[in-house]
Amino acid sequence: MVTILCAGSRGDFQPYIALAQELQAQGMAVRIAGNHSFAGFVQGYGVDFVGITADISTMNVDPKLLREAGNADNPLKMLLAFNKMKEYGIYMVSDFFAACEGSDIILYHPGCTIGYYAAQLHGIPAVLASPFPMHRTSAHPSVVLYGQVSANRLTIPLSYSLIQAMLWMASKDSIKGFWKQRYRQLPAGFGMPFERHDNARQPALVSCSNHVFARPSDWNAHIHQHGYWEVREPEAYTPSPTLAVFLDHPDAPIYVGFGSMTGINQYPGLAEQVVAAIIQSGRRAIIHGIGQDLALPESILRVDAVPHTWLFPRMAAVIHHGGAGTTAAGLRAGVPNIVVPFANDQFAWGHRVHDLGVGPAPIPRKRLTVTKLAAAIAQTNNPQMRAAAARLGEQIAAERGAARCAEVVAQLGEGRNT
After folding, report:
1. φ, ψ for residue 364, nearest 5 deg
2. pTM of the entire predicted model
3. Given this model, what pLDDT does residue 63 score?
């Protein structure tokens, strides 16, 4: 049994579902452990699920802390937000630890490091499965500072210290408290585990295209990055009649949606800015998650959730917040991306999109104006940008990220059976 410990939003879970699907294709039994509210979502893909009962609502997390985490637009704010949130983690550690019982292999999200210590206790392989590159390298800054500082011998190592410290901070004290309560001592070799994945028994997996960030040559051989982990939808998506009619038009629309960011805080005026910019640009558009109370012109269609893998390739361009998973879907679609980052690593993905020539410069949410967004939309008509986006989409589609990473895990299973 392979147990995958996962944390985050719906978009965070999707890459791990993709990995679980490929592990099942390898003949392995798999389950995902995470917030109980995602049970139906995960099970809808045919993957077993273990619900973690402690969550934001049951722990009565201060809404102010959630807003601070959602608006952390620089590394100092990120550290402060993570430090304030860590006290709530101890309630979840016990559930995640229990979910590891009966496992042969544990894969863990970098925010769920209890997986490393549970595997160590049970004498089974621990696999770090990261949704973004996070291991130290001299090639480029980490995703907490990429594009925001000049890359040099000081900033590059500092950026990896920051990202790893934030992720370790999210679970360190919780694990310490849980382990002392249960075993009256700390786990053997207690400390940040991220750089310990340097042997065949404890590999690390990374969901990232080598055409977006090339795998650094100074990583050890047991860090595997083969492409994005793309989920396979359980059945062909059928659009609503309204959406089908809207798409049956010679002028392909643009997409606008900011994922879970608009669920954390409504950001008054954001929807009005977006709609005004679309109208100013003269483009047709599909919007999701914003503008529920606005009267929209016929050129703009509001939709409920539609699979990005189905919708994005039908767009002329996509505008989003720059979450790692949404960016992966946007780049895979082969169309220009406009990133409006709100917080955390979203700024890095916005800068990377621009550096690759497949989208305009990112527009931070705090600096968003109607004029800036309309101008960015106009830039997506550039033939060179469109050609670069199409070429990158083809390169990403040719990778087999989830399948090749699943093969690494399957080899661990074979080793245990010999």
Report:
1. -55, 140
2. 0.89
3. 53
